[in-house]
Amino acid sequence: VKQSPLGAGGEFDLIRRILAGAGTGPTEPWLQSQIRAGPGDDCAVIRDGIAVSVDMSVEDVHFRRDWLEPSEIGYRSAAAALSDLAAMAARPIGILAALAVPRREADLAAGIMEGVAAAAHDSGAALLGGDLSRSPDRVVLDVVALGHAPNPVMRSGARPGHSIWVTGSLGGAAAAVAAWEQGRSPSAAARQAFARPTPRVAEAAWLRERGVLHALIDLSDGLAGDASHLAAASDVGILLDTALVPVHPAAAEGHPAAALRLALHGGEDYELCLAAPAGAIEALAEQFRQTFQLPLTRVGSVIRGSGVALRAPGGSVAPAGAGGFDHFDGSEP
Amino acid sequence: VKQSPLGAGGEFDLIRRILAGAGTGPTEPWLQSQIRAGPGDDCAVIRDGIAVSVDMSVEDVHFRRDWLEPSEIGYRSAAAALSDLAAMAARPIGILAALAVPRREADLAAGIMEGVAAAAHDSGAALLGGDLSRSPDRVVLDVVALGHAPNPVMRSGARPGHSIWVTGSLGGAAAAVAAWEQGRSPSAAARQAFARPTPRVAEAAWLRERGVLHALIDLSDGLAGDASHLAAASDVGILLDTALVPVHPAAAEGHPAAALRLALHGGEDYELCLAAPAGAIEALAEQFRQTFQLPLTRVGSVIRGSGVALRAPGGSVAPAGAGGFDHFDGSEP
Prior knowledge:
The structure is a homodimer.
Chain A: H1 13-23, H2 29-34, E1 35-37, E2 44-46, E3 50-58, H3 70-86, E4 91-101, H4 106-122, E5 126-134, E6 140-148, E7 163-167, H5 172-181, H6 188-195, H7 201-209, E8 215-218, H8 223-234, E9 237-241, H9 256-265, E10 272-276, H10 282-292, E11 296-303, E12 307-311, E13 317-319
Parallel strand pairs in A: 4-5, 9-12
Antiparallel strand pairs in A: 1-2, 2-3, 3-6, 4-6, 7-10, 7-11, 8-10, 9-11, 12-13
Helix pairs in contact in A: 3-4, 3-7, 5-6
């Protein structure tokens, strides 16, 4: 449930207004009582904390069939939806998948559904249902993830003085896409990052239990883009120290500036970005790393203001700008 | 959450096995406690009765852009998902919509989302979120409907001796499609039936409150096809009296045999089909008709056996056969 891919320009303002109008919420009392979070966060949340997210993957936009095995198409789509649950610190319950494939592609459909089922299993979710229909040509897969978040962590809780942390390392998935687009084969590590990302469900639960998560988002659009969503939802600014950003080994193979660009703007890492009171995470970080065999890295801080700024090693500060994946920014073919 | 479009042949058996395997349910106790209904009914149901359905509409498969206004594309897709809630006698809470449109189609996207919002409003549901992405060419719209069904009515409760009833009249949407496919303009009534179907949410709630709903399904694939799903889920047979089937006026304009075919096999009427003890509905039917200005018609009965049989006016009985919309039956272009 992201509004980020709506584009930065004015042309999708009407859709923004429709969704924002929904965000003001219904006036009917029973319906009001059913809704805890509407549009604008990673998941909608209803009733006693049912978190729901939907994630659409369209062939030739989100993946290409010559890049991935069918099971990987299913796995990464389901992982993306499950990552939205992680971004609310929700416990996964189940997955529903709607799949459209061309005629006579039964093996393709079965492979995709096997990948969806594997991703659900790996995150402790059940496969609750599927809807299969025909597509004239391209594969379309839509995954709905349902979880339980009695105390959902929203994007809106970041406050000036908080620190910004990220799990894992960034830019691996984007390195794989860059390799494919240049006609090369990505490294095994980059391919794995793109094809079988791990939703950080257990990591989010671990951090939530320790009371340190004040704001949370998953990294689907790239650190710079997703940090800007967190900043906007919290009405604050975020200052990222570029020297601190943990670059994925697969993204670090080229020029350092290119590596940083992949890590900041690459997207689809499905790591977590969180805001926590200064000093709150430091005491837990080593235990986190040992428990999950995963980095947990402070990358910046929350400041008064708005937007995301980057501080270079020399100390100069500049706006992060765009550069994340925007479905309608006009820069793609 | 339908398994019906998987096709009757053997080629989608693997997908059936994946979904059926999910149907046996998880073994982890917490997860077991969260799931009340998995694959195989109109909605999945979790926790305290949260019903969830997902419905995908693909351009040139489920609709054509030269048939419908953008708002109608959105309205009918959302209505189809809300109809799945009606089919469990669930009260709608909210809608999430994932939409993919080609570049520079902002008006199209806005129109579709306005239609989704209108359908949600008309059924008393909130718009909880949206996900917009780019499609290379065709419009794809996926609607997730969430409702509350503390006592969901399943497909599996039909018993020999029950009567089968349907709301409304059947074949109107199929009459519109038939007209378009023959290069004609459908009548206003047929067009309305296809473009702006009414999910029978209030009607299902009214009947559930009166305790007469033992099994329930909505008519998306056509009466013959959906009755066969109800029969299979209940492990019974269903005998339909063709003379009793309420044919939509728009479907009744041609040859009587063609009209009956549209009503039995046309699909996308989004009326309800229910099983109730013999004699239970008769006392309520007139009040139902006055309350909703909608027919409620007995069309047959539940028998021992399996499948759906048709009884012609002369008394001869024959299997209903296929003839519903099957995405992979090989008979379409």
